[in-house]
Design a protein that fits this description.
By secondary structure, this protein is an alpha/beta fold. It has a single domain, classed as Mannitol-specific EII, Chain A. The chain contains five helices and six strands; from the N terminus they run βααβββββααα. Strands 1, 2, 3, 4, 5 and 6 form a six-stranded mixed sheet that branches. The longest helix is centred in the C-terminal third of the chain and has 15 residues, at about 110-125. It is globular. It starts with 11 loop residues before the first strand and ends with a helix. InterPro entries: PTrfase/Anion_transptr (IPR016152), PTS_EIIA_type-2_dom (IPR002178), PTS_Nitro_regul (IPR006320), PTS_SugarTrans_NitroReg (IPR051541). This is PTS IIA-like nitrogen regulatory protein PtsN.
Length: about 150
């Protein structure tokens, strides 16, 4: 999976100062809306919060993959944010999370949504890649780590 087709430096941020699950999702929502005039940050936040109410998207090892479906989206969009410090995200391993790889998908692409999730989870299973993301000092560093 080539993540450069769904991610850009304008949708990444490093070492965001944050202390709550809701606030990190707000930051992700704002980044998404700033980079797509067809979506509103409130709509993105509602989709992400709806998914989190079904169960945390914290997959363990300090990583979460928040995701949601949006009606006004025409293609898959990714947002990557790292936080400092790591925050409680109700992850499966009960460890705090500092890498957030958010996915927004068109409402009508259920099958594609699952394939993208699987591809991202596979990339984030690479411990060396995760170390590089954690060390990232810029959006370019994040993009290189995911290349």
């Amino acid at each position: 999976m080539n993540l450069q087709t769904i991610l850009s430096t304008s949708r990444t941020q490093c070492a965001v100062q944050c202390n709550s699950k809701k606030r990190i999702l707000e930051i992700i929502s704002q980044l998404a809306a700033e980079n797509n005039r067809d979506i509103e940050s409130d709509t993105v936040l509602a989709a992400l919060m709806h998914r989190e109410r079904m169960g945390s998207t914290g997959i363990g090892n300090g990583i979460a993959i928040p995701h949601g479906r949006l009606a006004n989206l025409d293609r898959v969009m990714a947002i990557v944010v790292t936080s400092e410090p790591a925050i409680d995200f109700d992850a499966i391993d009960d460890k705090p999370v500092d890498i957030f790889f958010a996915l927004l998908v068109p409402e009508d692409q259920a099958e594609g949504h699952l394939q993208v999730l699987a591809g991202v989870a596979g990339k984030l299973a690479d411990k060396e890649r995760v170390k590089l993301i954690r060390k990232a000092q810029s959006s370019d560093d994040i993009m290189q780590a995911l290349a």
